[in-house]
Amino acid sequence: MSNLETIARLAGELPPITLDEMKSIRLMNRMDTKFVTNVPMLIRLLEMTKGCYYSQSVAGKRISPYRTTYWDNPVSHEMYHFHQCGHLPRTKVRVRTYVDSQHTFLEVKRKNNHGKTKKKRVAVPSLEAVIRDRAGEEFLHELTGLSFDSIVPTLGNRFSRITLVNQAKTERLTIDFDLHFHNYETGCDEDMDNIVIIELKRDGRLPSPILPMLRSLRIKPAGFSKYCIGSSVTNPGLRLNRFKKRLIKIGKIRRAAE
Question: How far, in Å, CA of 66 to CA of 56, rounded?
Fold first, then answer.
């Protein structure tokens, strides 16, 4: 059995929770923490979650494919560099497609001076409609003051996601894996298919069943911006600075799975 088949089997062994049921989970005082690991560790983690978590089911599937494209200034790469140097406030602009449903959204993520991130989005017909017809430009300009004259598609990624919810329904856990990047500017591609990004979204400081599991597997908190990491490994012209140590750590995690 392949790793992907094993992951699908383990996610399928957890009781399901539907999208409608997920809507009732409102994390009013949300705290977000990211963790980075590899596929073998993910398999061990999923085995430990039995009896503690539901897994989101969409049309009977527990694994959902996503595609995302990020926009930035083609000369200054302002959004990349603001994140790279820790500048606040900062903004990211992306188009995300939920592949199974083909629902597509233009999204603006903004991190304010207090480090809190808010995301707003508007439905658009497709990625192609944004690129070709500037779909969603009024929404973009209203939130950011930008237009599609000043930013272009710079990086695309695709990945698969499992979403878990604890039985108390006080946290969500997104697990992203099978990650692939394509750089629109350089034409370079990079597979990180053995890297796993886990994001814990929980209500305040309420107890979390996943944290002792992560500690037992020695999976530690670690930042991972898909846009910035993907850009840094596919565009050699970008400054790395504060990403250097992170890329070294990611490399070690990848090699540990070989």
Answer: 15
Q: Across all residues in the chain, what is the average pLDDT?
A: 92
In this structure, is the dihedral angle defined by the CA atoms of residues 242, 192, 58 and 139, taken in order, positive or negative?
positive
Candidates 94, 35, 100, 92; CA nearest to 66 is 100
**Confidence (pTM):** 0.92
Give 106-120 pLDDT, tens digit per residue. 999 998 887 777 889
Query: What confidence score (pLDDT) does residue 111 get?
Result: 87
What tokens does 189 get?
Answer: 């591609």
